[in-house]
Amino acid sequence: MPDATEQDAADGALRTGPAPAETGLVIGEDGLARPVWASRDPLLREYYDAEWGLPVRDEQGVYERLTLEAFQSGLSWATILRKRPAFREAFAGFDPDAVAAFGDDDVERLMQDERIVRNRRKIEAAVANARATVALRADGGLAEFVWSFRPEATPEPTTWLEVPSRSEESVALSKALKKRGFTFVGPTTMFALMEAIGIVDTHLVGSHRRGTSGVWA
């Protein structure tokens, strides 16, 4: 999900249809209701419609999204999405085994790659997290581990302000992953991950995507 800065900017944008401002939803030209952040940029709209919030239960998919959420910290999600193809190429398709084998030379290579976010701590975290992902296979694997923190109920926000940025479960997941050797997995980042892979459904009530994951009735 976009950060607060991007959301604030989007809130001031010209709307394409008759959606009350207090709902945080915009009715697009296709007649579908989306939150403001997914209503203008075609890339964000496609991500919202086709991917965000749908269940991801495979190791590589969860590792990729965990890595991208960490890189997004302090940036807009649109920036990460635009760089996603380059990230995939630079990080060997987010194959945990391949990234776990990265050494100092690979970190320096990535620091010179202008196509991605060149933040040394985040790059090193991606490598460390790949190694932690491989190690976690002995206990069921990353996907099963992350999904075990699914809450008993999901939020039902009707406005943007009602969407939480963390939860009791995301705090617990953050602590548990850190004990397993993961880094850049703070509670807010983990809640964003839980939203992205369908563990919680924070689509606004009234959005055309609400309840479409199949995880929550």
Tag the structure with descriptive keywords.
2 strands, two-stranded antiparallel sheet, 47% helix, Endonuclease III, domain 1, mainly alpha, DNA_glycosylase, 217 residues
Written description of the protein model:
With 217 residues, the protein is an all-alpha fold. It has a domain at 59-196: Endonuclease III, domain 1 (Orthogonal Bundle). It has helices spanning 4-11, 42-50, 59-72, 77-90, 96-100, 104-111, 120-136, 142-147, 168-179, 187-196; strands at 25-27, 33-35. It has a two-stranded antiparallel ribbon. A hairpin with a 5-residue loop joins strand 1 and strand 2 (33-35). Helix 9 (168-179) crosses helix 10. It is globular, with a radius of gyration of 17 Å. Mean pLDDT is 91; it is low at 2-20.
Unreliable segments of 5+ consecutive residues: 2-20
Instruction: State mean pLDDT (0 to 100 scale).
Output: 91
CATH superfamily of the domain at 59-196: Hypothetical protein, domain 2
Largest sheet: 2 strands, antiparallel
Q: In the CATH hierarchy, what is the class of the domain at 59-196? A: Mainly Alpha
The beta-strand count equals: 2
Which percent band covers the strand fraction?
Answer: under 5%
Please state the oligomeric state of the protein chains shown.
single chain
N-to-C order of helices and strands: HEEHHHHHHHHH
Helix content estimate: 40-55%
Major sheet: arrangement of strands: 1-2
Query: Distance N terminus to C terminus?
Result: 22 Å
Structural class: mainly alpha
